[in-house]
């Protein structure tokens, strides 16, 4: 900042820097020049004159700071400052929706469970995930998911500074929850159901809950329902736990660890196939509606946008398709009997055998193993699509197909080529410490559940004192990835860990049969009737063939 030139009549003025805006000048000695005014009578005999300039050449003299001149100017300064502050306060701050679009990120908190959000070999998935991902796409922003350890934690996170702005976790509103958050329009109707174990006495009403060992999620509306019932039936005892998820509760009933639990009907529909002894006793109360939740307050921008989106997906059929995909069907893969497999050996395999052999040879994979994978995936059907969106004879995801150079997943030749390349790829990615034959079984497990979850299981196995390089040990641990107390300790979180175990077991069974039937034949019927091992073919026709995919 340039120092102003000295003015005539002030030869002894010395510039003194007062602040970043004004310059002060002090006269060392001598009388005050003519025309100047004393600032105060209390000043010493050798008063000083002051001149203050703004750096852009406006000059103010001491006379202007006399007591009479100072008051009106100080008042004007206060008025101007006040107006400035008032105008500054009137500037609109961006609302929640505007901030989301400016940041380019929608932050969402949810639960790590099969009905909400988890990762499988297809990547991130789950009913809530897919619904909220479409919402983020509609906004044109990136979706960032956070998972809460329990329901209380989930509600406490919503609206925190730089935290999630939305909770999408299959939530049902209650008076207590409405004090914490605001709920959107509903998107799924569910009914709370009492679950018991097949073979035990079936409860038929609330009175039958007395004396039973019951567990529910801590902080859930189900805990509130039981609390109300306890007023009428004091003998009802139940435990609330934040160390489990719904899938844990169903497993505990299936294994007889608890007598009963209370969960929503959609969770039962999704998971019952994995717990064959789980049964619904009765519906407890009326149906409820699941909604999303946003922070409390007066800012309705995000809530209005959510409601408009949910209304739209209801109207255009997107919501119903998601419901059908996750809750409307039972996956029958892996439950096909050996007799049906034997029939398909004759009817379907011949059409694709040459492709299995050609691409298996190219990728240095046993063609019978590749064929067994194809059967487990699609029953050797070329034009199929599963509920999760994987397609074709080898059931490739879109991402896997692109990575393997497959342009048409429904072309059986391309599908087999892609499956062979992918199986060889995942096998090559395994640690060198894993040797055959375990290496093949680990590769199959990674093909099914993904390498990340397989690594999680191997680490858990090592912590349990088991051998992480032996399939016999790791397959004992994999199902734990669906139990909260275990998957909460892992990097990749929840997985349907029982699926790769069944996947590998089924393929090994089909592979054994294929290996046997493709061996050089002995004379006559010696192979069929001799003492050689004939793996698992039941010669008795089943009363009803398992439904095809």
Question: How do you describe this structure in short?
Answer:
With 549 residues, the protein is an alpha+beta fold. The protein contains 21 helices and 17 strands. A hairpin with a 4-residue loop joins β3 (51-54) and β4 (59-61).
Which range best describes the helical content: under 10%, 10-25%, 25-40%, 40-55%, 55-70% or over 70%? 40-55%
Q: Structural class of the helices, strands and pairings?
A: alpha+beta
Multimeric status of the protein: single chain
Distance between the termini: 82 Å
Quantity of strands, as a count = 17
Overall geometric form = globular
The main pleated sheet reads as: 6 strands, mixed
Q: Please count the helical segments.
A: 21
Question: How much beta, percentage-wise?
Answer: 5-15%
Instruction: Please state the average pLDDT score.
Output: 81
Low-pLDDT regions: 1-30, 32-62, 329-336, 520-549
What is the alpha-carbon Rg in Å? 37 Å
């Amino acid at each position: 900042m340039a120092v102003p030139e000295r003015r005539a009549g002030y030869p002894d003025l010395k510039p003194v820097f007062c602040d970043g805006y004004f310059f002060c000048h002090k006269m060392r000695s001598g009388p005050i020049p003519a025309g100047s005014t004393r600032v105060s009578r209390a000043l010493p005999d050798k008063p000083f004159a002051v001149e203050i300039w703004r750096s852009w050449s406006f000059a103010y003299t001491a006379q202007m700071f006399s007591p009479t001149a100072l008051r009106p100017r100080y008042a004007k300064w206060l008025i101007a400052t006040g107006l400035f502050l008032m105008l500054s306060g009137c500037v609109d701050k961006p609302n929640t929706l505007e901030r989301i679009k400016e940041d380019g990120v929608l932050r969402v908190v949810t639960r790590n469970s099969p009905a909400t959000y988890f990762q499988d070999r297809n990547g991130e998935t789950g009913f809530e995930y897919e619904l909220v991902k479409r919402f983020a796409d509609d906004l044109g922003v990136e979706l960032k998911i956070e998972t809460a350890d329990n329901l209380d934690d989930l509600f406490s996170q919503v609206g925190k500074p730089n935290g999630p702005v939305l909770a999408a976790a299959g939530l049902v509103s209650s008076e207590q929850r409405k004090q914490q958050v605001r709920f959107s329009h509903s998107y799924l109707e569910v009914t709370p159901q009492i679950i018991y174990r097949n073979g035990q006495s079936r409860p038929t009403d609330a009175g039958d809950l007395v004396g039973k060992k019951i567990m529910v999620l801590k902080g859930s509306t189900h805990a509130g329902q039981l609390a109300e019932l306890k007023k009428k039936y004091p003998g009802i005892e139940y435990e609330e736990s934040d160390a489990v998820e719904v899938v844990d509760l169903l497993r505990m009933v299936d294994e007889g660890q608890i007598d009963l639990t209370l969960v929503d009907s959609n969770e039962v529909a999704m998971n019952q196939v994995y717990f064959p002894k789980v049964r619904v006793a009765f519906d407890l109360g009326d149906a409820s509606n699941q909604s999303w939740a946003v922070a409390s307050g007066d800012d309705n921008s995000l809530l209005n946008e959510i409601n408009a989106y949910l209304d739209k997906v209801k109207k255009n059929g997107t919501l119903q398709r998601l419901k059908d995909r996750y809750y409307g069907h039972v996956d029958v893969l892996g439950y096909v009997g050996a007799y049906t497999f034997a029939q398909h050996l004759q009817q379907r395999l011949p059409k694709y055998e040459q492709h299995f052999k050609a691409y298996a040879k190219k990728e240095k994979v046993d063609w019978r193993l590749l064929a067994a994978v194809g059967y487990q995936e699609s029953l050797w059907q070329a034009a199929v699509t599963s509920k999760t969106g994987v397609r074709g004879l080898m059931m490739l995801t879109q991402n896997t197909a692109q990575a393997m150079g497959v342009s048409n997943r429904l072309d059986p030749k391309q599908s087999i080529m892609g499956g062979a390349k992918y199986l060889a790829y995942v096998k090559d990615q395994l640690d060198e410490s894993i040797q055959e034959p375990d290496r093949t079984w680990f590769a199959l497990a990674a093909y099914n559940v993904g390498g990340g979850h397989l690594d999680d299981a191997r680490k858990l196995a090592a912590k349990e004192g088991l051998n992480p390089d032996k399939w016999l040990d790791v397959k004992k641990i994999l199902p734990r990835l669906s139990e909260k107390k275990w998957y909460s300790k892992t990097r990749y979180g929840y997985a349907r860990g029982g699926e790769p175990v069944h996947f590998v077991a089924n393929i090994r069974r089909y592979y054994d049969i294929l290996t046997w039937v493709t061996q050089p034949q002995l004379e006559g019927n010696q192979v069929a009737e001799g003492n050689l091992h004939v793996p698992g073919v039941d010669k008795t026709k089943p009363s009803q063939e398992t439904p095809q995919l």
